[in-house]
């Protein structure tokens, strides 16, 4: 392991476009939910006629499934750097990638898709999803749960009261039902996250920008140095993420 300055400089210079976390291999770990979202997503795409993947990031999850919808596959992304990566990753898969503002209006006609998927959406606009789903169509999504990884936030910004995050699974159920969808599956999981050097934390915070929204190395250098010493003493920095899986039908 390098020294503090080398670790931080390396992570601060790393490319964080797209949604590929392979840079963290050997430097951080996060347990995966027991249900296997990508496999389940692939099974549903393989049974679909026309599918839509919302907030696809760099398209890595969609590109990683072997199945294809029978007639057409579409994905949306709103962040320009991720949009370019998604177009590159999904071009050979026959997926049409659409630039989308990420708001409550989706640029598609009513009842277009018999499957809508989304992994870790920033926000979920249930009425828009219900509108573009065909009768009998399915929404299938893995989402970030409440207070996920709050230990990271707490270290840099101080503790905040748990709960009322807007990411509770029961709120997702209520939102889906209010839009006229029937929730047929809802599961939750708590998962261990572990960072083995301070550079891994820097990279993570540069990529997952909502954890510490004003994060820069210079702004938080003193806290990063404290974290470096803590990891050296303890061997790692541990946090807990939360995920839930929701499937709803129109």
TrEMBL record:
Transmembrane segments: none
Superkingdom of origin organism: Bacteria
Pfam family, one: Methyltransf_11
Annotated GO MF terms: S-adenosylmethionine-dependent methyltransferase activity
InterPro entries named in the record: 23S_rRNA_MeTrnsfrase_RlmA, Methyltransf_11, SAM-dependent_MTases_sf
Biological process terms in GO annotation: methylation
Keywords: Methyltransferase, Transferase
The keyword Ubl conjugation belongs to this UniProt entry's keyword annotation: no
SUPFAM superfamilies: S-adenosyl-L-methionine-dependent methyltransferases
Domain called Methyltransferase type: residue spans: 52-139
Descriptive protein name: SAM-dependent methyltransferase
Gene source species: Saccharothrix violaceirubra
